[in-house]
């Protein structure tokens, strides 16, 4: 696989409205309106017969990478059995998603769910069982993608005719260029670091370097954002995506912003500020100084 930068991380939640409010407060920036990604031919491991699927979601205004919050559906790739928290890593669109499907199959990785349009797999999520409870999302550009407002009506159009999921105020503020998210790293908890490095390298094309401080972790080489694989110690809830590291210009200002918004956090001696995972659906944001 060729190494691709992460386009966004996916968070799975039981209540997208509450999650949208909490995440916006924690990040200090807005999310899109709640929209629906609709497919008439969705299928996967749990239900291989093509069927209609509505996926409610909201998108963070920040990019490179962004954050996508998606709500549980009845079964399959986004079912409650996955639990709340980190769900997937998504990459920029590929030219041939059918070929990517075949490539992953040679590695023994099937698809937990995806949408087919006129014989093309235009979106697909890999089986999380094969990658430490993390799905990878692969997208092919297509007219078959259908985003709708939460009430089922078409999403808005900009003056140039392009579609947008963001409200008018957000669009006026940022124009055609959404702001950088300043997310520099994602953390993934794994049971066996050596095995995880081998699988993640095969799936993503990333090279990993072991931590030099004696800790049982490894981080991608030369990729922004980075992926850090961390071997779990003792009893732990589950493998998977558990945190994102966000650079901030001022730790003190971040602390004041979180306190004013009543976001629960832990201040680690003014070096790092971690938002309580219970506030963010089992996921943590860790703010660090951009000057370190």
From TrEMBL:
Superkingdom field: Bacteria
SUPFAM superfamilies named in the record: Glyoxalase/Bleomycin resistance protein/Dihydroxybiphenyl dioxygenase
InterPro entries associated with the record: Glyas_Bleomycin-R_OHBP_Dase
Region Disordered, annotated ranges: 76-97
Protein name, UniProt field: Uncharacterized protein
Organism, as annotated: Paraburkholderia dipogonis
């Amino acid at each position: 696989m060729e190494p691709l930068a992460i386009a966004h991380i996916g968070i799975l939640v039981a209540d997208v409205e509450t999650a949208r409010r909490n995440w916006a407060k924690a990040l200090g920036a807005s999310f899109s309106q709640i929209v629906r990604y609709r497919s008439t031919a969705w299928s996967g491991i749990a239900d291989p017969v093509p069927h209609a699927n509505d996926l409610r979601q909201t998108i963070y205004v920040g990019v490179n990478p962004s954050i996508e919050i998606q709500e549980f559906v009845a079964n399959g790739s986004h079912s409650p059995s996955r639990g709340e928290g980190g769900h997937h890593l998504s990459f920029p669109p590929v030219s041939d998603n059918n070929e990517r499907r075949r490539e992953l199959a040679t590695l023994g990785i099937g698809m937990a769910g995806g949408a087919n349009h006129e014989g093309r797999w235009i979106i697909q999520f890999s089986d999380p069982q094969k990658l430490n409870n993390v799905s990878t999302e692969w997208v092919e550009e297509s007219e078959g993608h259908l985003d709708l407002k939460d009430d089922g009506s078409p999403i808005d159009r900009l003056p140039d005719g392009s579609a947008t999921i963001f409200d008018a105020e957000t669009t006026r503020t940022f124009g055609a260029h959404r702001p950088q998210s300043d997310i520099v790293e994602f953390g993934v908890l794994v049971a066996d670091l050596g095995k995880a490095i081998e699988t993640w390298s095969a799936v993503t094309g990333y090279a990993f370097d072991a931590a030099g401080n004696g800790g049982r972790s490894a981080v991608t080489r030369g990729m922004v954002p980075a992926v850090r694989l961390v071997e779990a110690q003792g009893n732990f809830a589950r493998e998977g995506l558990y945190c994102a590291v966000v650079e901030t210009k001022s730790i003190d200002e971040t602390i004041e912003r979180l306190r004013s918004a009543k976001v629960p956090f832990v201040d680690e001696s003014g070096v790092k500020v971690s938002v309580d995972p219970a506030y963010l659906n089992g996921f943590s944001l860790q703010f660090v100084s951009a000057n370190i």
